[in-house]
Fold this sequence. Notes:
- The chain is mainly alpha-helical and 155 residues long.
- Helices cover 57% and strands 10% of the residues.
- The protein has five helices and three strands; from the N terminus they run ααβααββα.
- Strands 1-2-3 form a three-stranded mixed beta sheet.
Amino acid sequence: MRMVDSILMEIDMEAQTTKLAWKPHPKSYSLGQLALHIAAVPGNIAAAATPDTMEAPNFTQSEPKSCTEILDTFSKSLASAKEALNKMDDAKLASTWTLTRNGKAVMSVPRVAFISSILMNHLYHHRGQLSVYLRLLDVPVPSIYGPSADENPFG
């Protein structure tokens, strides 16, 4: 290995971390935090929806170490979400799910409403944020529900 190869490897590692650490605003998640949050949502929410009651967590979002960590988290999250949701029959989905804080009910809704609102709508919301981050960084925005300005076959 040439001496410069270790420096080049370190530059690549730092570039990845630097991009993941980028924030559009001081109040915003970093790009990495947002991507890791999106990656973890399906599995975390499906797990939260499994018991009838859940104590509200004190949530903080960690910084990922790499893009690989985000992709691995997403793969595991999807697999665990599908497994958990496949075990829920109609009766389970129609039953009441309750969020508590300090043992007191904060929200009680049909489980399917929690899953739809927090797993799906929450995911759409953050994916929309991520597409704005990509645009601000001049990274091509992929098509989501239709062509983007970067992937428009009609443009």
